[in-house]
Amino acid sequence: MNETCTAISSDKDSARAGAALGRKIRDAFRGAPADAVAVFASAQHHYPALLESLARECGTETIVGSSSAGEFSDHSRGEGQISVLGIRGDGLRFSVGHGSGISRDPAGAAREAVAGFRGIVDSPMPYRAALVMTDALAGHADALVEQLTVLTRGNYSFFGGGAGDDAKFTKTHVFAGTQAHSDTLVALEILSMQPLGIGVSHGWIPAGAGMRVTEASGTRLASLNGEPAVHAMEEHARATGQQFDRANPLPFFLHNIIGIKIDGSYRLRVPLGVNPDGSLALAAEVPTGAVVHIMKTSEQSAVQAADKAARSALAALGGRRPSAGLVFDCVATRLRLGSVFDDELRSCAELLAPAGFVGCNTYGQIARAEGQFSGFHNCTAVVCVIPQ
Questions:
Q1: Alpha carbon distances (Å) from 109 to 16, 94, 345, 353
Q2: Are residues 128 and 154 in the same domain?
Q3: β partners of residue 94
Q4: Ramachandran bin of 154, using left for φ above 0, alpha for ψ from -120 to 50, beta for the remaining angles
Q5: Minimal CB count within 10 Å: which of 71, 129, 194, 313?
Q6: Are 180 and 126 in the same domain?
């Protein structure tokens, strides 16, 4: 039987908030320590103070998480908060890995992160998964997911996302134990007797014809069909009657993002700005030679996508009851939807009830699971459900 505790705090004192959350986890487990904790915290917090007090009170340093760009639970959401999930169960085994130097050597960072995994060669339990959080500002997120898949021989499911910093896009951190790191990924290995449920969905569709990426480098999209990439955005704005301002493009970009066509589906990328040469700065990489579309969605589609992700995660439990969930969605989704984002969270809460959930808004979402569209995404809902 797996036990979980979900909690959220709006206390601005990091040490006091961490201690209170840790005590709540201990109380939920009748004084027993947690086996593992996932934690997501606003950039307003002092992470060492938060993590040290949390670890002391909940009784474990098996802690993984990240800074975030909006924190929530099944009954609360906001900015400047801390959300946590405590887990305890006889049918679960956990270990923490972290790999540094993503910007210099993403493959080396992935190897370092999985070095401590106990289930790669001979798992004592039949199901293997990992919660993965990465410093998305360091880049190479797609490559990291691929490397993790190769290094774990395709036997692990992955879920998680890119750390945030309250939509400042300046510096993000991931948490391993009581330490916070940048240019690093962290992974909570989860070996279990029962499968975890993972669901992925985004609700965006093409708004125009496909275009070939004729030049790109990392997160810089230089040209589409041989023209500066910004020209495609300007032409789409004219054709659809929207306003586009190169000096302030984010209001347009929140409603018009890039979709990479892959096997009949679309992996999403959020444009963040326009460079002086007409190239676009994106939240994640786009490969040269790919076919991309400008994508559109609606408020209703975003809510339906979260609903679909939650239903897929529950279906993957094979009839087992959920104990708790982790939910990740893009900061761009929260900024675009405003108060309608509450409807997305409400839909997840109704489907998972009576189990609770916590989560955060991220700079990209990670998903790798059987039957799901896998990789590193933007503007995509990812739901993981832990069985009882």
A1: 33, 20, 33, 37
A2: yes
A3: 190
A4: left
A5: 194
A6: yes
**Residues 42 and 59 grouped into a single domain:** yes
- Distance in angstroms (rounded) separating the CA atoms of residues 22 and 57: 5
Name which of 135, 153, 137, 142 is nearest 99 in CA terms: 135
Residue 230, phi then psi, degrees to nearest 5: -65, -25
Least confident of 57-71, 73-87, 114-128, 187-201: 114-128
Identify the domain containing residue 381 by its residue range: 2-201+301-387
Question: Which tens digit of pLDDT belongs to each residue from 217-236?
Answer: 989 999 999 999 999 999 99
- Count up the domains in the chain and report the number: 2
Q: Hunting for tokens 């959401």 — which residue is that?
A: 77
Residues 184 and 92 in one domain: yes
Tell me how far apart the alpha carbons of residues 149 and 275 are, in angstroms, rounded to a whole number: 34
Residues 360 and 238 grouped into a single domain: no
Based on the number of CB atoms within 10 Å of its own CB, is 256 exposed (0-12), middle (13-18) or buried (19 or more)? Answer: buried
Pair (52, 121) in one structural domain: yes
Residues 135, 184: one domain? yes
* CA distances (Å), origin 263, targets 116, 140, 267, 313, 373: 34, 21, 10, 22, 10
Judge contact between 47 and 40, C-beta under 8 A. Answer: no
Name the amino acid, one letter, at 146: E
Last residue of a domain, which of 296, 322, 347? Answer: 296
Could you tell me the strand order of the sheet in which 92-100 lies?
A: 92-100, 184-192, 127-134, 157-162, 365-368, 375-377
pTM: 0.93
d(CA 131, CA 367): 9
Token couple for 231: 């020209």
Share of the chain above pLDDT 70, in %: 99
- Asked whether the predicted pLDDT for residue 177 surpasses 90, the reply is yes
**In contact, 292 and 286? CB cutoff 8 Å:** yes
Of 296, 318, 334, which closes a domain?
A: 296
> Does residue 307 sit in the same domain as residue 265?
no
Residue with tokens 């444009």: 271
Half-sphere exposure of 54 (CA within 13 A, CB side): 36
- Whose tokens are 């906001």? That residue is 78
